[in-house]
Amino acid sequence: MPAGRAQGLSLRQLVTVEPVLFLYAFGLFMNVPVAQQFVYSRLSEAKGFPYHFQQKTGCEGKELNDSMKKLEKEVQTEASYVQLGIVMFSAIPSIIISLFMGGWSDKVGRRPALILPTLGSALEAVVVLFVMYFKLPIYCLFIGGFLHGICGYYTTIILACMSYVADTTEQSVIALRLGIIELIVFLGGMVAQLTSGLLIEKLGFIAPYWIIFGCHVAAMLYAIFFVPESRVKSSTETGRLFSMENFKSPWRVYLKATGHIKRNLVVLTFCTGILSIAVLGINGVVNLFTLHSPLCFSPEYVGYFLAFRQFMHGVGGVTAIKVFGMCMSDANISRIALVSYIGFLVCLGFSTTLLMVFISPIVGIFGGAGPPVLRAMMSKIVSADDQGSLFSAVSSIEVLCTFGGTALFNSLYPKSLKFDVPGFVFVLGAILMLLPLFCTFCLRDQSMFKRKRKIANSPGGYEKIGDGPEEEHDDERYADDSPDNVSVDSPIIPPSPEEVPAKYV
C-alpha cells in the first residue's frame, strides 16, 4: 500500500467536492424549515389559526380550546400534504434522471453530475421567491420542486460525491471518507437550521430565501471552476445522457455479481433503503411535531433543535467510524449506528417537553454512522469502473424510499393527531429500523470488505486479499478497470508522488 495513502487523507483529497456539497446542503436544509413554516404561516392565515412565526412561542399560549385544536389539526394536515407534494415533484423526476446519470458519469466524468443539481436548486429558489413576492398560490411551489427534480435533486449530487470519493480514495479509509461527506451534509444542515429560525423571526421568509439562492449559485460556480475531474473521459463510449446503456448500467452491477458478493450487495442495498425511510422520510414530520401543542416551538427553537440533531449525528457518526473502526468490523459499526438511531426515534416519539426533545439526539449520537458505513461496504466490493453505476442505483433507491417514507409518515401523522398521539410515527420508524439491524446478520464472507481494488486513474492496482477459489474468481472480475492514459494537461486529479508504488518509480 502506498505510504501516502496509509498515513491518512491529504488536504488535496479533503477539499474537492466538499465546498460544493456544503453549500448545496446549507441551501437545501435551510429550505426545509423556511419553506415549510412559510406554508404553515400561509395556511394559518387563510384559516384563521393564531400561528405567529415572529413570537417566542408558535401558539397563543400552551392551552388551546376545542375549536382552536380542531383548526390546528386542519392546518397541520394540509401543511403535511403540501410538503408531501413538494417532495413528490422533486423525488420522482430525480430518480429517473439519476438512473441515467450514474452510468453517464462513469463515461464522461463526475463534474456534470455535480453541476446539474446545483442549477436545479437555484431555479427552485427563484420559483419560491416569486411565490413569496407575488403571493402566488402555495401549490406553485410544486413547480420549483419539479425543476429541481429534473436536474437531479439531492439524488444526483450525492451519487456524484460518493462516486468521486470512490474514484480518489484508497479503501482502508473509504468508510471514514464517506463519513466525512456525511458530516459535511450534517454541518451544512446544522448551520442552515441554526440560523433559519433567527432569520425567520427577525426578517421574515424572503431574506432567508435570498441566502438559499446565493448558496446554490455559489455551489454551481465552485463546481464549474474549482473542482478537478476524477475520471478519464472514455474515448470509445458515447457521452449521450439518455441512452439505454446508461439506464441499464446501475442494474448490471447487481446482475453480474455472483455468490456472496451478490447476496451482500442486495442485503446492503435493502438496508440503506429502509434506513432512508426512517432517517430522511420522517424529516418533514419532525418539524410539524415540534410546532404542535404542547411543544409549540417557535421558529428559533425549531432551528436550534434541528441544528443540534444534525451536529450530534454528524460528529457522532464520524467519531464512531474512526474510533470503533480501530477494533470493529464495518458490520458491527453499522449495528451500533442502527441501535443508536432507534433510541433517538423512540425518545423523540415520547417527548412532551423541550428538554426531552433535546435529549433525543444525544441518545442517537452514533446514528449518523449508518449510511456512510453501508455505502462504503458496497463500494469496496464493486470495481472502480462501476462506482457511478452502483451509487446511481443506491441513491435512486434511497430517494424512492425517502419519498415512500415521506408519503407514509405524512399520511399517518394527520391520522395520529385524531388520537392525540403525534409521536406514533417515530415509534413506527424505530420498528422499521429493526429490519436493517437484523439484515446485517445475513451478510456473508465479510473478508471481501477488506479486499483492495485499484483506484480509478491510479497507475496500478493493489494486491488482492483472499486465496479461496471464489475470491480468486471475483478478483479477476475486478481487474479490468479504467485505462490509465492520463495526459499531462488533463484536469483529472493525478496521483501525488508519494501515492505511486515503488515499482512505477
Look at the helices and sheets and give the structural class. mainly alpha
For the biggest sheet, the summary is: none
Radius of gyration: 23 Å
The stretches of 5 or more residues where confidence is low (pLDDT under 50) are 1-8, 458-491, 496-505
Summarize model confidence as the mean pLDDT. 81
Assign an overall shape: globular
Protein name: Proton-coupled folate transporter
Subcellular location: Membrane
Transmembrane segments: 21-40, 81-101, 113-134, 146-166, 178-200, 206-227, 265-289, 301-321, 333-351, 421-443
Membrane topology: Multi-pass membrane protein
Task: Tell me what the structure shows.
Residues 457-505 are annotated as: Disordered. InterPro entries: MFS, MFS_trans_sf, Sugar_transporter_CS. The chain has 505 residues and is mainly alpha-helical. The two termini are 14 Å apart. The radius of gyration is 23 Å and the shape is globular. Helices cover 69% and strands 0% of the residues. It has helices spanning 3-6, 11-14, 18-47, 66-108, 111-134, 141-150, 153-168, 174-203, 206-225, 244-255, 259-279, 283-291, 299-324, 330-349, 354-363, 370-380, 387-418, 424-439, 469-477. The protein contains 19 helices and no strands. Helix 3 (18-47) runs antiparallel to helix 4 (66-108), helix 4 runs parallel beside helix 6 and helix 14 runs antiparallel to helix 15 (354-363).
